[in-house]
Amino acid sequence: MERRKFKLGLIAALLFLLTGHLITSSVSATFSGGRSMGEPNDQEAMDIIRQKCLQCHGADGMGGLDLRTRESALRGGGRGVSIRPEKSAESLLLQFLTGKASPRMPLGGELTASQIEVLRRWIDDGARWPEETLMTAQAPKSDLGRSRITDTHRQYWAFRSPVAPPVPVVNQAQLVANPIDAFLLADLERQNLSFSLPADRRTLLRRVTFDLTGLPPTVDETDSFLADRSPDAYEKVVQRLLASPRYGERWAQHWLDVVRFAETNGFELDQDREQSWRYRDYVIRSINDDKPYDRFIREQLAGDELAPDDFEMRVATGFLRAGPQHIVAGNLDLATNRQEWLTEVMFGVGNGIMGMTIGCARCHDHKFDPILQSDFYRLQAFFAASDNVDYQRTTTQDQEAFKAAQSAHQEKLKPIKEQIAAIEKPYVDRLKAGKREKLEQNEPVFAAALAKPAEQRSELEKQQAKDAQRMLNVSWDEILAVLNPADKARRAELRQQMHRINLFSPEPLPKALAVTDSLTPVPSMHLLKAGDPHRPADEVRPGFLTALLPAGANWDAEVTPVVNGEFKSTGRKLALANWLTRPDHPLTARVMVNRLWHYHFGRGIVPTPNDFGRNGQPPTHPALLDWLAVDFVRNGWSLKKMHYLMVTSNAYRQSSEVDPLRASRDPENKWFSRMNRQRLDAEAIRDTTLLIAGNLTEEIGGASIRVPLEPEVYDTIFTEGEPDNLWPVHPDVRQHNRRSLYLIRKRNVRLPMLVAFDSPDMMSSCGARSTSVHALQSLTLLNSDFMLNQSRLLARRLLGETASADRSRYNQRRAVDLLYRLTVGRPPRPAELRLATQFLISQTRVISERQQRNEPVASLDATSVKLSTAEQAALVDLCLATMNMNEFLYLR
Amino acid sequence: MISRYQNWMSTSDRREFLTRAANGFGAMALSSLMARDAAAAERDRPAANLNPLAPRQPHFTPKAKSVIFLFMVGGPSQMETFDPKPVLDRMHGQQLPPSFGKVKSQFVKDGTPLLGSAWKFSKYGQSGLDVSELFPHVATCADDLAVIRSCYTESFVHAPAMYQMMSGRVLAAHPSLGSWVTYGLGSESENLPAYCVLTQPEGLPEGGAPMWGAGYLPTVHQGTVLRNGATPILHLAPPKEIGRGQQRNLLDYLRNVNRLQSREEDNELAARIAAYELAYRMQQHAPEAVDLSRETAATRALYGVDEKETREFGTRCLLARRLVERGVRFVLLFSGGGPVSVQWDAHDNIKSNHEQMCRWTDKPVAGLLKDLKSRGLLDSTLVVWGSEFGRTPISENGKGRDHNPTAFTMWMAGGGVKGGQIIGETDELGFKTVGERYHPRDIHATMLHLLGIDQMKLTYLHNGRHERLTDFGGSVIDKVFT
Predict the structure, then answer these.
(1) d(CA A877, CA A843)
(2) What is the pLDDT of residue A373?
(3) Residue A774: which of B52, B240, B348 has the nearest Cβ?
(4) What average pLDDT does range A593-604 have in this prediction?
(5) How many whole angstroms separate alpha carbon A121 and alpha carbon B425?
(6) Which residues 64-123 of B have a C-beta within 8 angstroms of A?
(7) Is residue B60 part of a domain?
(8) Which of residues 322-361 of B touch A (CB under 8 A)?
(9) Most CB atoms within 10 A, among A414, A604, A663, B197?
(10) Tens of pLDDT along A458-508?
(11) Which of A610-619, B139-148, B230-239 has the lowest mean pLDDT?
């Protein structure tokens, strides 16, 4: 016993060193089920279990396994029976300990071979157990892990407030346009490198125009920039672009990626969130207005508490409802649903604003970063009283007008519905009669119950009558199956009529999909074991990340309730928002300037924009990042000023060409010794195609648009109902040519072209899109109706703009020239012109041959230029090929 | 853009690559060139490869090369198919004894009476495997099946349970099994999508597209739904206004222009050039793959392709074999989808529902197993039959059964599986598992193992976490193959 006590004490001391916990344990020496008391091997087995297993498989019962008593241990957990006495080989426990089952246990610390042998013998001897419950080898978690966060954690670079370092002095001072260049050059000079030569003006203009607006420069814009020899010609362009409403559209897209905004709930039902587009418009407006970023964040977290009567501020809180939400029918588990929403909120705040993977701490302390599990729930506690509450501010007049419009609409539908019902009636009657007959024949008990007057039915009969009623139900697919072809066609036509009328259903009254404090009294917030809402542990109060608080600071946040007339709120969301937007917050500004850098330069200073933690990548230029963060805050959190600074740096204006020196010294372009080439993203490809074809409808904002959908994709819309109106296409075809930002963002139904070019799935925050290359992209760009149609329109445009005065012919050379200027922002080189001309000749020949075989060819109806159909079709093909060119898809 | 493509090929490789890209590849298999370096590339950084679907070496010698997952949408009943429960039949109409615990399901409440099975079971094959009379054809393959009777999932709602069966998690947005497999192994087929999905023509399962989604893996790994007809893949055929020769001429022009504009050591641009050639070949080969006209009458008869009841599912089973034969890595084949009447979701009447669903699928499934076997493909093709959950022993709406995630049956065949055996058991009423039970994670771990993949090594860094299909680890079910 003496020796054992010593050993325990030693382990206790060790564990204390490791975890900061003091071990309290009591050991009973009485064993049950055994031959003799206290077999040494049994005692050792107990020690091992106590020391190595109970931390998780004690009171916490991780995986459903509780090893404190023999009974609960034999019962096992979620993975099955853990111990089969006398059969160690069949005991799951041993399989986990030896790594035969995974994960190998104990997590993060395997047992020695001799320890495993002890347990093997113990099981084969019958797995004897102390009579009493084994006590957990764990201190009460009274401090919720708080003491585990030390100064070392607080010193992590991203957790210290940024301080602007002095701008370095560099040798090549002539290359410094602003401090960004100085920071970059300081590192480059250490590597005996320097910036690349400046990009040519055309390339630069195309780059910055796409970068700031998501669209290419027009031919005129290019020409006037080339003609402007004033020293600030470029700066003027940047100012013009930042003032363009297209800028807000472009950068809203980036923010919507980060907050994984979509207009449906996701998951199987994927229901629409009516009017969720208002949040998208709010983001566009905010960015175009250069709303200070700190204000932008405060509004999205706590717009209701800032200005409760301001509709726009309510819309802003849609940020908290942007993520997917799991809603299904049946026996719902409300606690789980609510916790899922709260978890999504934490993902939004964590990834989006703080650039930390806080979600990892939902089930356990973060494995890589000093984020406690309790931190997750303390942050979540800022939303303890909050819920999804739609906000409407309408007058009685509005409501009455809407009601009137609705009943007028129903009136229009009524005759059609009646006709449909009339067609269906004889079939339904027949089906019902058949079912009734079958019921009476096959299920007399149920039929009898149904036949009985309701008030005379017994409990059982009540159920049987209900079941019988259900057996008589006729579903839409049963009706469809028996309709004769004429009735079927007529019915389908009527339904189409109905759907067409529904396209013009009355505009709903404006509402904001908002979040506000509506739960009273405020529900207490608990740490949840393994993230399970049915296993609450200690209660927590609202508080910020422990590692971001100074040692000894108040662990609970100070919260002031908000009272504003009728409006009352806990003030918790505002407290969180205010903390996040403190000028000295270590993360918020750094994360945002890094996002801007990522989009401008193609790679963030922290290359993982959503993860500033240890599992992300460290900053390549920490001093520059800090300087930018401080500068951002100093300039009133102005995004436009930060854009301006970045894109007017010489670093940004470099060429992206890779020369041998840079290829060998800086292969990954870690030091920004050149500009990174970037591929256009999915939306830019589609928008640009529309623009250069002269076909883009430029309107800002409004309800989202459904454009025609490939039948293959239509078929993937889930429904158990009749699948004939799942994708009501917008009745105005001009609306189909809006920027991609305005197309409805349905989580389960995405445009194939956007998917092919890596548009994110909107299920989790996307800080950096991937750039894949695969054959399905080629198929989309070559074969889709969309591309063929736009190629046709582009060909017509070329003809129209290069036609001779009498419009009898067009200038082929000028057409090719214009095509290149539109698609890649430069005139063709002689070799390219030659290739294009040859192609037009050979392709015209191929197409003529097809015409002779009476095969269909593309034609440009309504062109006034005289051109054979084959020549027209060849020009269409040239346009299509050009929009498949690498140079079209990439920004140099 | 993160220059993930640099440092991948040596300069001489790049020259060869580009020259060949320029020559339209001819007989050269692009993927074999890719494969040469793929083996050397670090497994954790798949993006280092230009063609994300190039075949990759498994972690150890695989038993199976490809997978056909037969997913029975809605939850077939275990006690009506592979798990006979004579006690349940005897207790028909009685209440569930309290000792069995409470029923937690989506619609029924405790208190509805037990429902016995309407079908008889017999023992089949040398192994004497129990199969119900609903599956007379599948029964003749008894010695090929490893029947796992103690499967479970964690949700009694369709979609979450489906997500769990396909991705290990009840929430959507995680990569599906097939995506992980193509991510890990690439594809043997140059001309077809690596991961094909064949859905019920009437509609989708409730879980919808996330069931074959790539989640946070690159989108190229998501399943491709094949349509009926000659153009099974989206945008596969050129518009009718653009003929084949015309398109070839267009592609030649495009290749020449692209060459003019790219430097030869530029891997990403070279990959784009190659992607167009792959696309062109896919246009030629995919229609051939789905063209069943050259199948013999005997083969068609095996699947019941020319019989009314089995035509639809038989056609898709035959298609699955043709895809696997052509190197497709993973085929996900659904029985059921769309209206409830076309699913295994027998809430109202287990008898009429299962009679219909079994009539549609029994012969085709058996035909698939036999056809694969006679072609020597069964050894390398893992066939899995299963669903998101099973059904309750108590009745719903009188004659139906509700969802039961606490016990259901799956089976595996081919691809290294030891057939003619039963693994796991359920209680006397088929309500809950008894003893060792198997989570989708365990099924996944086992499938990966048969494919030569170590579940712990197949990871993808997402959001600061090395994600795995079998998060927290599943256990390989050794009995399946030993």
Answers:
(1) 8
(2) 94
(3) B52
(4) 97
(5) 28
(6) 104-107, 112
(7) no
(8) 338-342, 348-349
(9) A604
(10) 888 888 888 888 888 898 989 999 999 999 999 999 999 999 999 999 999
(11) B230-239
Average pLDDT, chain A: 89
* CATH at residue B338: 3.40.720.10
ipTM of the complex: 0.81
Residue A586, both tokens: 């270590």
pLDDT-based confidence at residue A664 (cuts at 50, 70, 90): confident
pLDDT exceeds cutoff 90 at B49? no
Count of structural domains within chain B: 2
Question: Is residue B51 one of the residues assigned to a domain?
Answer: no
pLDDT confidence of A332, banded at 50, 70, 90?
A: low
User: Is the Cβ of B245 closer than 8 Å to some Cβ of chain A?
Assistant: yes
> How many C-beta atoms lie closer than 10 Å to residue A605's C-beta?
24
Q: Do B461 and A710 touch (CB under 8 A)?
A: no
- Which residue from A658, A779, A832 is facing B257, i.e. has the nearest CB? A832
Name the amino acid, one letter, at A84: R
Q: Which residues of A touch B272 (CB under 8 A)?
A: 773, 778, 886, 889
Are B404 and B256 contained in the same domain?
no
Q: For residue range B280-333, list pLDDT tens digits in order.
A: 988 888 889 988 988 999 999 999 999 999 999 999 999 999 999 999 999 999
Residue B54 domain-assigned?
A: no
Asked if B409 and B129 touch (Cβ cutoff 8 Å), the reply is no
> Which sequence spans correspond to the domains of chain A?
2-140, 396-502, 783-891
Q: Which chain A residues are Cβ-neighbours of B206 within 8 angstroms? A: 268, 718, 720
Of A104, A749, A885, the CB nearest to B258: A885
**DSSP-assigned states of every residue in A321-375:** G-S-----SSS--HHHHHHHHHHHHHHIIIIIII-S-GGGGGSSS-SSSS--HHH
Q: What is the chain A residue with the closest CA to B432?
A: A80
In a domain, B55, yes or no: no
Q: Which amino acid is at A753?
A: M
> What does A273-330 look like in DSSP terms, one character per residue?
-TTTHHHHHHHHHHHHTT--HHHHHHHHHHHHHH-TT-HHHHHHGGGGG-S-----SS
Within 8 A of A266 by CB-CB distance, chain B residues are 172-173, 210
pLDDT, one tens digit per residue, over B396-426 is 988 999 999 999 999 999 999 999 999 999 9
User: Any idea what the Cα angle at residue A683 is, between residues A680 and A688, rounded to 5°?
Assistant: 70
Q: Please list, in sequence order, all residues whose beta carbon lies within 8 angstroms of the beta carbon of residue B247, skipping any fewer than 6 positions away.
A: A782, B238, B280
Per the listing, tokens 């789905």 go with B290
